Amino acid sequence: MKIAVLPGDGIGPEVIDQAMKVLDVLRREGMPLECERALIGGCAFDATGHPLPDATLALARSADAILFGAEGGFQYESLPRGLRPGDALLTLRRELDLFANFRPVVAFPELGGASPLKAAHVDGLDLMILRELTGDLYFGEPRGIVVEAGVRVGINTMRYDENEIRRIAKVGFETARKRRRRLCSVDKANVLESMELWREVVDEVARDYPDVELEHLYVDSAAMSLLRAPKQFDVIVTGNLFGDILSDEASMLVGSIGMLPSASLGAERRGLYEPVHGCAPDIAGRDIANPLASILSAAMMLRMSFDEHAAADRIERAVRRVLASGYRTADIVEPGTRRVGTSQMGDLVVAALS
Ligand code: IPM
Ligand code: MG
């Protein structure tokens, strides 16, 4: 069980350290976890001149799973494209063909008051956003900034072929089948041809899944419904850009993006696991970031890449126990709870494991 550990930049290293503390407990108990660290993002650029050094890509390819923190930072924003930290993550997703991005949005009852929405509106919420991760505007060609007749033009291309749509749709139906058997496909088929094809292909795939109830929503309407009636959703399947936006929106249903883990998988079991949040340079190094999304990402890794369901359940139970005891990082603190730092939160989860 070889894990490539890529902490990255900003709060990445401090939250990944907490996930590693948790994995260390399992390793000491005998789970054959082999962890190897490598540089990615801005720190890799500083050290090697490239945000995704060959050694890091090679390690990621050879590993059974990748645990990723975050990447980026103000100082890198004006670098040429291809050298920016975010490009490393996009290249990794694309090179490893990790096309299916699972972003579970689960309201912990212990966090009842953390969402800006009324508690009754979100209690018991359990939805899965399945975001296509290797196509769409993120990768479509042509792209660039060109000059046409003396005017600068920015160009990106929304592009999906039917095979890309079919494979993510299948994952959507399979996922719904293991849950409450409801799939909502989100597109913009009323305006965009690529999304018209999306809807058509999802309908074709649906014929093989008569036991799953399929609904289509336009993305604007889906964004509204996610706030109006979030509990109506089971699995949402959508493209790369819409999934990026909707998953940040959905984080507010549970109170903080600091609580959301994710898994990105391809055709094999190898996956990349990362918190949905970014590098948050404004709070980096201050021991205030929430490490729970990283810890919960490690749990997803154990479950989805290693079939270690009992260990994954145990980590999730430990997180809930710590929350039930009233401990909170700054992003989810409420009156009557006890604020703790990043590292202490990691220690509390470790203590709750045993
Ligand atoms: C995400 C992030 C990334 C994305 C960025 C950092 C490239 O926002 O994982 O949601 O847009 O996919
Ligand atoms: Mg995002």
From TrEMBL:
Pathway: Amino-acid biosynthesis; L-leucine biosynthesis; L-leucine from 3-methyl-2-oxobutanoate: step 3/4. It comes from Paraburkholderia caffeinilytica. The record marks Y138, K188 as: Important for catalysis. Homodimer. This is 3-isopropylmalate dehydrogenase. Belongs to the isocitrate and isopropylmalate dehydrogenases family. LeuB type 1 subfamily. It catalyses: (2R,3S)-3-isopropylmalate + NAD(+) = 4-methyl-2-oxopentanoate + CO2 + NADH. Mg(2+) binds at D220, D244, D248. Keywords: Amino-acid biosynthesis, Branched-chain amino acid biosynthesis, Cytoplasm, Leucine biosynthesis, Magnesium, Manganese, Metal-binding, NAD, Oxidoreductase. Its EC number is 1.1.1.85. Substrate binds at R93, R103, R131, D220.
